[in-house]
Amino acid sequence: MNKKLRVGLLGGTGLVGQRFATLLDNHPYFEVTCIAASPRSAGQKYSDAVKGRWKLDIPMPEYIKDFIVKDIYDIDEISKEVDFVFCAVNMDKSEIKKIEENYAKHEIPVVSNNSAHRFTEDVPVIIPEINPEHLDIIPKQKERLGTKKGFIVAKPNCSIQSYVPAISALLEFKPTKILVCTYQAISGSGKTFEQFPEIVDNTIPYIPGEEQKSEDEPLKVWGHIEGNKIVSKKDPLITSQCIRVAVSDGHLAATFVSFENKPTKEQIVEKLKNYKGKPQLLNLPTAPEQFITYFEDEFRPQPKLDRNIEKGMGISIGRLREDTLFDYKFVGLSHNALRGAAGGAVLTAELLYKEGYLY
């Protein structure tokens, strides 16, 4: 299929929506044709709706400035203008759940950046390099929804992408327990330093809801399809702490892991460096050429130096060494707003496009 698909951005005025707008500028598969947000932004030009609230350090794309923002609840009208939507709305979870399902029932596929449907049993939670086979559940989801084309696919929490790719590369060694402490950038809360002055010279030791996501979502990503649902993996056991730090972008994860079949350090490094997935095999536009970059330098990875590796879509791993309580420990890093949010969703949509789910 050579014709570009028409895309709607739900929640297009927020931080993640702004990322979507920049990533989709001149995209080879997709063309933004609709921006929707809450009723208070509806009817305004996009440039006016985000005036004083453009949060990125790159300019607003010219193509989007004169879009008239639509009311996110005007599904009948929006469905005439789009082939699928990205959802990045900032609302109560139960409300998001209803909105996404309503779009799907209007035969509009939804690629969601939200957590609302991550534990709906027939909604796949996709990291494209790790579990693309979970897309096979979509026909079962369509049966439940009563749709021919509409469905929902979610991307996982941004913080787990700092360590889950590395563990995924090592699953053959059967990890049994994981301890992870994430040090999460302020953009993960949708804020800049100007909007979050209390973080300056500070660390906040609690991010509501993050620890449960960090412990549960990897197990769904590593799970399997059984009938009409995705069954989460029962192991490894994961425990976590999630901390907000004074960094603009980039989530760091200090990870400790034990295995049933302990590999050598050399085996781990080889697996990390050579790990590839379907996005690399299909040469998808947003896919990093090198999914996981391993650093020998003890002082890497660092958010300031390494978050933009592979245009923000690569994962960085360093400080791999044996541990006294676990088998190994390492530090992982991902760009939370790119790989972890909008970029990960765009990559998922590219995979859906190539696999024929969007048309």
From TrEMBL:
<dbReference type="GO" id="GO:0009088">
    <property type="term" value="P:threonine biosynthetic process"/>
</dbReference>
<dbReference type="InterPro" id="IPR000534">
    <property type="entry name" value="Semialdehyde_DH_NAD-bd"/>
</dbReference>
<dbReference type="Pfam" id="PF01118">
    <property type="entry name" value="Semialdhyde_dh"/>
</dbReference>
<dbReference type="InterPro" id="IPR005676">
    <property type="entry name" value="Asp_semi-ald_DH_pep-lack"/>
</dbReference>
<feature type="domain" description="Semialdehyde dehydrogenase NAD-binding">
    <location>
        <begin position="6"/>
        <end position="138"/>
    </location>
</feature>
<dbReference type="InterPro" id="IPR036291">
    <property type="entry name" value="NAD(P)-bd_dom_sf"/>
</dbReference>
<feature type="active site" description="Acyl-thioester intermediate">
    <location>
        <position position="158"/>
    </location>
</feature>
<dbReference type="InterPro" id="IPR012280">
    <property type="entry name" value="Semialdhyde_DH_dimer_dom"/>
</dbReference>
<protein>
    <submittedName>
        <fullName>Aspartate semialdehyde dehydrogenase (Gene asd)</fullName>
    </submittedName>
</protein>
<dbReference type="Pfam" id="PF02774">
    <property type="entry name" value="Semialdhyde_dhC"/>
</dbReference>
<dbReference type="GO" id="GO:0004073">
    <property type="term" value="F:aspartate-semialdehyde dehydrogenase activity"/>
</dbReference>
<feature type="active site" description="Proton acceptor">
    <location>
        <position position="251"/>
    </location>
</feature>
<keyword id="KW-0521">NADP</keyword>
<dbReference type="GO" id="GO:0051287">
    <property type="term" value="F:NAD binding"/>
</dbReference>
<dbReference type="GO" id="GO:0050661">
    <property type="term" value="F:NADP binding"/>
</dbReference>
<dbReference type="GO" id="GO:0009086">
    <property type="term" value="P:methionine biosynthetic process"/>
</dbReference>
<keyword id="KW-0560">Oxidoreductase</keyword>
<dbReference type="InterPro" id="IPR051823">
    <property type="entry name" value="ASADH-related"/>
</dbReference>
<dbReference type="GO" id="GO:0046983">
    <property type="term" value="F:protein dimerization activity"/>
</dbReference>
<comment type="similarity">
    <text>Belongs to the aspartate-semialdehyde dehydrogenase family.</text>
</comment>
